[in-house]
Write a structure and sequence with these properties.
The complex is a heterodimer.
Chain A (H helix, E strand, L loop, with lengths): L2 E4 L3 H12 L5 E4 L23 H12 L6 E3 L8 H4 L5 E4 L4 H14 L4 E5 L12 E6 L2 E5 L10 H19 L10
Chain B lengths: L1 E2 L2 E2 L8 H7 L7 E5 L2 E3 L14 E6 L5
Parallel strand pairs in B: 1-5
Antiparallel strand pairs in B: 1-2, 3-4, 3-5
Classes of the chains: A alpha/beta, B mainly beta.
C-alpha cells in the first residue's frame, strides 16, 4: 500500500509519524512550506528544523524511527494540474492541507482523476472546544472526513489537531488492514 | 431529492451551482457526490438536479 500525505502541518506530520510507527513505509510526503517557530505547538518538528523545508524536516524525523525509510518527497504546492502525478500509485491520500479551498480542490481532483484512491480528509480542528466533537465519517464512496466539521479560526493548538490526526491515522490503518468494508452510517 | 440524508423539494431546472449558492454553501469550499458519483466542480454549473437525486455535500473549513 502506498500512502500519500498532502500537507505536513499539524495533521499531516502527526499522521505520517503514527503511520511510520505502525510499520507503514511506502509514503509520499508533500508540502511547499518551511518550518516556523509557531508550528512547534502542534507539529512534530524540533527547534533545529526552523527554516528547513517541511518535506526535509518530516523525513528527517521519520528516519529516526525507521532508518530504512525512503519517503518520496515533493516540495511543491498542490494544484489540480499536478495532483495525479505527485500522488501517482497512491492507494490512500491523507488530506491535511490548510485552506478550505485547497481541501475541496484536492478532494475533488483526486476523486475525479484517481477513482480507485481513497481520501481521508481532516477539517474542523481549531481551538480548545470539546474533543468529543471530533469524529470520523464515511461521506462519499471513497471519502472519509475526520474533524468537527465547523471550527475554523487561526487559534490552532496541539490537542484537538492531534486528536483529529489520530482519527485520520486510525482510519488509514483500518483501510490498509481491510477493516472498512461497510459504510459507517452517519 | 435527498441531501445529506434529508428529503427536500427542489424547483425544476435548478443547477447544482444555484442549489449550493441558495443553500448557503460556497462552491469553492465543497465537494459533491451525486447519486454515488463525484460531481467534478467544473460541472457544477451545467448539472441540473432532479427530485429523484441523492446528493452528499461535504463542506470544508480551514486549518491543517
Amino acid at each position: 500500500m502506498k500512502i500519500g500525505i498532502a500537507g505536513l502541518g499539524g495533521l499531516g506530520s502527526n499522521v505520517a509519524m503514527m503511520l511510520v510507527r505502525s510499520g507503514i513505509n511506502n509514503l509520499v510526503l508533500v508540502d511547499f512550506d518551511i518550518v516556523v517557530e509557531s508550528n512547534l505547538n502542534r507539529q512534530i518538528y524540533f527547534i533545529e528544523h526552523i527554516g528547513k523545508k517541511k518535506t526535509y524536516a518530516c523525513s528527517d524525523i521519520l528516519k529516526k524511527i525507521d532508518p530504512n525509510l525512503k519517503p518520496e518527497l515533493h516540495d511543491v504546492r498542490l494544484t489540480e494540474n499536478n495532483i495525479s502525478e505527485v500522488f501517482k500509485g497512491c492507494d490512500i491520500i491523507c488530506e491535511a492541507l490548510d485552506s478550505a479551498e485547497s481541501k475541496a480542490m484536492l478532494v475533488d481532483t483526486v476523486l475525479t482523476k484517481m477513482p480507485e484512491t481513497y481520501v481521508v480528509s481532516g477539517t474542523g480542528i481549531s481551538g480548545f472546544g470539546s474533543p468529543n466533537t471530533i469524529i470520523t465519517e464515511h461521506r462519499f464512496n471513497k471519502l472519509y472526513v475526520c474533524g468537527d466539521g465547523t471550527s475554523e479560526t487561526d487559534d490552532m493548538h496541539g490537542p484537538r489537531v492531534i486528536i483529529c490526526a489520530g482519527h485520520q491515522a486510525n482510519l488509514i490503518l483500518r483501510l490498509i488492514y481491510g477493516m472498512e468494508d461497510e459504510k459507517i452510517e452517519n | 431529492m435527498i441531501v445529506n440524508g434529508k428529503r427536500i423539494e427542489i424547483s425544476i431546472e435548478t443547477s447544482l451551482k444555484d442549489f449550493l449558492l441558495s443553500s448557503g454553501y460556497d462552491p469553492s469550499r465543497v465537494a459533491v457526490e451525486l447519486n454515488g458519483k463525484i460531481s467534478p466542480r467544473k460541472t457544477f454549473e451545467e448539472v441540473i438536479l432532479k427530485n429523484t437525486d441523492s446528493m452528499e455535500i461535504v463542506s470544508f473549513v480551514g486549518g491543517g
